[in-house]
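The material for today's practical consists of a large collection of protein records. An example says more than a description, so a record of this kind follows:
***
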Amino acid sequence: MLRIHFTDADYAAVRLREGPDAMWETLLSLHALQQCDEALEFGRWRTEVARELDPVAADSLFPLAPPVGYSPDFLTPAGAEGFGSGLERVLATPAGRMVRELGRLRAPADRGRRTRPRPEHHPVRSPLHLLDQQRGHVRKQLREHITRARDA
């Protein structure tokens, strides 16, 4: 069993945001769209979003955000204030870091095996392509839901 102990200094360092983080909401929404559980909480939302979801965006974004396992850290940059700032930080990710983190992903067909896809064959062909797909996903599917969560 793993035990984690927090000191008073650890607790003092905890900071809470005033509202939801747009980049985390984007990533977690991609996780939720690929799962069939939690129908009571997400069923209606999942149905609405799936009906309008651009298949090209889904093909590009779903492999980056598997519902179980690793998702690249560069997709949720620290210190981003808002979606625009987050996208700028994603775009500014050094190529080496992006390749390393994408290399940790497994292709959907490989999830049961120990092999990993080669980063140059990953569906994200460029940071600009990724940026465009993320922007479209948020604009079409998440804006209303993020606003509702912020106002709650």
Remarks:
- Residues 111-125 have pLDDT under 50 and may be disordered.
- Helices lie at 8-12, 22-33, 39-52, 55-61, 83-91, 95-103, 127-151.
